[in-house]
Design brief:
Length: 166
């Protein structure tokens, strides 16, 4: 665990980026964003829907269009605000436990179009190189996990998102 903490000293939950607190003054070399999602890839949560919460709760939390729109808005905001904290050449990890492309690849692709200083980091994790990775229960022995690594490449002027929180 110490090795992980050295690699990613700042791990944020989505609500931190919604408060407008003074964290915007940080100039972090590494950030891990574990972003709120529908949890539809979490085996632990799927079992809870079946045994504790009920399938009506699943419909409300995972399938409701308004909930999905709200989550996507939150995910975009967290990614924009998190990236604003990243120093030049720093790395940011965006992660969810959702199967949904709309909460994963589409959020990252949207962000890359918005932020000219953001560049994907290609990683070879032993099953193929890429900048967006899906860890699957049947292949990796985990609950579902989406991970994308981004870096800040500074050009001549400051980026639009680096000016402050969204």
């Amino acid at each position: 665990m110490e090795e992980f903490q050295d690699s990613f000293p700042f791990v944020f939950h989505a609500t931190i980026f919604m408060t407008g607190s003074s964290i915007h003054q940080w100039d972090s070399p590494r950030l891990l964003l574990v972003v709120e999602c529908t949890h539809d890839g979490s085996l632990k949560h799927i079992v809870k829907y079946r045994t504790q919460w009920g399938w009506e709760s699943f419909k409300r939390r995972v399938l409701d269009p308004q909930r999905l729109n709200d989550l996507q808005r939150l995910q975009r905001s967290v990614l924009l605000n998190g990236f604003a904290l990243l120093k030049s050449s720093g790395r940011l990890v965006y992660s969810t436990c959702s199967f949904a492309r709309a909460q994963n690849e589409e959020i990252v692709e949207w962000f890359l179009k918005q932020e000219p200083e953001a560049k994907p980091v290609v990683l070879d994790l032993g099953y193929g190189a890429g900048s967006m990775h899906r860890f699957l229960p049947n292949q990796h022995g985990t609950s579902f996990l989406f991970v994308s690594v981004l870096t800040r490449v500074v050009h001549d002027c400051k980026s639009s998102s680096a000016s402050g929180f969204v």
